[in-house]
């Protein structure tokens, strides 16, 4: 096993900056919730969640999985180029050195670099087709199911005409499955939960504990990614930031509904975000354990895809409101899908130019 430096200065610096930004997102709930009310909240959340789905999926498929499979592995070549460059610099000190042969090797290295870059872009393009197919199938299913949802809402409207004017927006904010099963809680229900720890109600404790674990995993993902390369660290950080935004807004709303004051909810949310720093150093340290980094990245890719497709995407499919036409909802979601994909794709396509800055 080749022992590598676990805590490289650049990896630690950029990792700390990224985790600090992610942690500060715990404050966004207080900033955003007062600005988006009523129907506009549902519309903005459509964009935010779709953006999170796209960045998580794109990072996992376009960057993390190719790294696990060795497609993006070019460290050995870079080291070879550096050695050749060092030989050229010191050639005057070596009598009888065949400069022509060295220059030929350097030309070969640069040609190989160009070939490797073209191969990476080809892989990036082909994997983008996977994401495109998923998006097209989502749109087809979304459009095909609108008729069924419309008829279902019509029946529901006829049965509850006297209450719709008071409860329509609240029903829109709840997942469809919970509405059907009658399991959705109201804000008064949350405020009546028992106090279990330091004046916190059970719902608030579960939210904060879940946030702490969630943020620790995010920190591990960012740390492991920066341990590989700045490019992978950047794309993973963007994916984490995008999926933390709607997550933090939703959690902050639940904390307020559980009876916490705005100030106390902010402080507790920020404290739970600090676990990401511990996760960061766990991720950075994984590079010193043989094969651990590759396995860790594979697990991270799986978690990203699970959160994107089986958590957030399911929620998006239920986000067809009574006030907005289906095509407006689809346009808002598509804006988030396409925007998130473009961000991650551009970073991969112009990786060499970005690293050269």
TrEMBL record:
Q: Where in the cell is it found?
A: Membrane
- Return the InterPro entries for the record: ZIP (IPR003689), ZIP_Transporter (IPR050799)
Q: Which processes are annotated in GO (biological process)?
A: intracellular monoatomic cation homeostasis; zinc ion import across plasma membrane
This chain belongs to the protein called Zinc transporter ZIP12
Which residue ranges does UniProt annotate as crossing the membrane?
A: 12-35, 47-65, 123-144, 266-289, 295-314, 326-350
This protein's superkingdom?
Eukaryota
Family membership noted in the UniProt record: Belongs to the ZIP transporter (TC 2.A.5) family.
Return any one Pfam family short name.
Answer: Zip
Q: Which organism is it from?
A: Toxocara canis
Topology in the lipid bilayer is annotated as: Multi-pass membrane protein
GO function terms (MF aspect): monoatomic cation:bicarbonate symporter activity; zinc ion transmembrane transporter activity
Q: GO CC terms on record?
A: plasma membrane
For this UniProt entry, what is the primary localization, expressed as one broad class?
membrane
Alphabetical UniProt keywords? Membrane, Transmembrane, Transmembrane helix
């Amino acid at each position: 096993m080749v022992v590598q430096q676990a805590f490289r200065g650049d990896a630690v610096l950029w990792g700390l900056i990224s985790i600090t930004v992610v942690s500060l997102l715990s404050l966004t709930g207080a900033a955003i919730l007062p600005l988006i009310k009523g129907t506009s909240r549902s519309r903005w959340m459509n964009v935010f969640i779709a953006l999170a789905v796209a960045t998580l999926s794109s990072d996992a498929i376009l960057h993390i999985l190719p790294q696990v499979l060795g497609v993006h592995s070019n460290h050995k070549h870079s080291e070879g180029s550096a050695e050749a460059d060092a030989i050229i610099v010191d050639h005057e000190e070596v009598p009888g050195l065949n400069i022509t042969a060295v220059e030929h090797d350097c030309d070969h290295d640069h040609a190989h670099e160009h070939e490797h870059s073209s191969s990476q872009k080809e892989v990036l393009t082909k994997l983008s087709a996977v994401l495109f197919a998923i998006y097209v199938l989502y749109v087809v299913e979304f459009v095909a199911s609108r008729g069924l949802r419309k008829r279902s809402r019509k029946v529901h409207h006829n049965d509850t005409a006297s209450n719709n004017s008071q409860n329509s927006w609240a029903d829109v904010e709840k997942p469809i499955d919970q509405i059907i099963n009658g399991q959705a809680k109201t804000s008064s229900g949350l405020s009546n939960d028992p106090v279990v720890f330091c004046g916190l109600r059970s719902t608030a404790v579960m939210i904060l504990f879940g946030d702490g674990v969630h943020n620790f995993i995010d920190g591990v993902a960012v740390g492991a990614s920066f341990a590989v390369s700045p490019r992978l660290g950047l794309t993973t950080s963007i994916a984490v930031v995008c999926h933390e935004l709607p997550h933090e807004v939703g959690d902050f709303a639940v904390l307020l509904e559980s009876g916490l004051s705005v100030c106390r909810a902010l402080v507790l949310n920020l404290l739970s975000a600090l676990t990401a720093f511990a996760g960061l150093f766990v991720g950075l340290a994984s590079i010193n354990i043989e094969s651990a980094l590759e396995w860790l990245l594979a697990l991270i890719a799986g978690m990203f895809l699970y959160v994107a497709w089986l958590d957030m995407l399911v929620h998006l499919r239920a986000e067809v409101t009574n006030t907005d036409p289906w095509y407006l909802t689809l346009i808002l979601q598509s804006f988030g899908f396409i925007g998130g994909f473009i961000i991650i794709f551009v970073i991969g396509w112009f990786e060499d130019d970005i690293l050269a800055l």
